[in-house]
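ok, trying the design again with the full structure, not the truncated one.
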């Protein structure tokens, strides 16, 4: 178990700020400037969010790309498309990147991005990064032999949604009901809800499902949980939720509602706890795969990688503010304890 106090986040915040400033320059380079380096391969990077929200993931991708021998601006160019949280724009943005004749299309940040990239081309190589099952979502034919023009990396964030329910049940053992928040527009929402209902039956707890697909719906979700008086909130795995961790954490404290999400960004921002895949590793591995493909390997020969590490992060200060107490078992089993 690692323990980290809030002051320890300062160097990381500084590194992230410096990286963000660096990437602002890189991401705003024009296509014309890249055209001057005709011998340089080009990666098309399709992002569901903004540069600011995606900075830590992009930094991990660059780390992996560097491990494969490629550095942006030195021996590889990257053209970016940012959906800025408007996921309906992803298909058009993917088509635009394909039209620019990029050498490889990178689709990180969840199933919606991977599906948009796959629909845009059957010839350009695609490297995806997601938390769901790419076979179940029909992104690849199989994990060992993805087939066609696509491969990538998947974490276990979607599969471990029932475990989040279990952690919340441990925190609130006498609560007759817990609330689950799902994004109805997510390709993985229904499968997650089926697993959550099965887990609830085992735990003998009633579930109430709330839907939210827009940021302006978050307030009503937390207000409903606060009005209920006894419920905690369990968020399904969804990139839209993950990238709005600061807003979710602020609402959780405002309404005094215990909540758990998939990403460590939530407790780092002041929320109670998170449990999910290690997104830094999945994005780093996506960068390695993109580099290997630029070196000549075929996507059909690269099996989909599974990031099997999951991490539990808890925030003791948030627990105190919410009047909740973690058991000694949860504290001892946490990968990181924020004080």
């Amino acid at each position: 178990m690692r323990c980290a106090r809030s002051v320890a986040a300062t160097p990381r915040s500084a590194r992230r700020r410096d990286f963000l400033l660096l990437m602002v320059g890189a991401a705003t380079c024009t296509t014309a400037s890249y055209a001057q380096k005709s011998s340089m391969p080009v990666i098309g990077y399709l992002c569901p969010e903004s540069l600011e929200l995606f900075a830590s993931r992009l930094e991990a991708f660059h780390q992996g790309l560097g491990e494969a021998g490629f550095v942006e601006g030195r021996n590889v160019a990257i053209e970016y498309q940012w959906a800025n949280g408007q996921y309906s724009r992803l298909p058009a943005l993917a088509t635009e990147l394909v039209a620019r004749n990029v050498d490889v299309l990178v689709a990180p940040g969840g199933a919606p991005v991977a599906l948009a990239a796959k629909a845009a081309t059957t010839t350009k190589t695609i490297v995806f990064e997601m938390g769901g099952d790419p076979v179940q979502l029909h992104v690849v034919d199989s994990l060992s032999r993805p087939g066609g023009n696509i491969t990538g990396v998947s974490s276990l964030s979607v599969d471990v949604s029932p475990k989040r329910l279990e952690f919340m049940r441990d925190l609130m053992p006498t609560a007759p009901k817990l609330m689950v928040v799902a994004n109805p527009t997510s390709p993985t929402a229904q499968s997650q809800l089926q697993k959550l209902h099965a887990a609830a039956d085992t735990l003998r707890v009633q579930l109430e499902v709330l839907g939210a697909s827009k940021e302006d719906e978050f307030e009503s979700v937390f207000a409903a949980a606060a009005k209920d008086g006894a419920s905690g909130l369990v968020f399904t795995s969804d990139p839209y939720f993950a990238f709005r961790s600061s807003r979710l954490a602020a609402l959780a404290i405002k309404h005094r509602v215990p909540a758990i999400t998939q990403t460590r960004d939530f407790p780092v921002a002041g929320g109670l706890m998170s449990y999910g895949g290690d997104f830094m590793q999945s994005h780093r591995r996506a960068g390695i795969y993109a580099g290997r493909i630029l070196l000549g390997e075929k996507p059909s020969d690269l099996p989909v990688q599974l990031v099997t590490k999951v991490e539990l992060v808890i925030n003791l200060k948030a627990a105190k503010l919410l009047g909740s107490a973690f058991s000694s078992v949860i504290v001892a089993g946490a990968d990181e304890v924020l004080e």
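Keeping the full-length input from now on. The longest strand covers residues 42-47.
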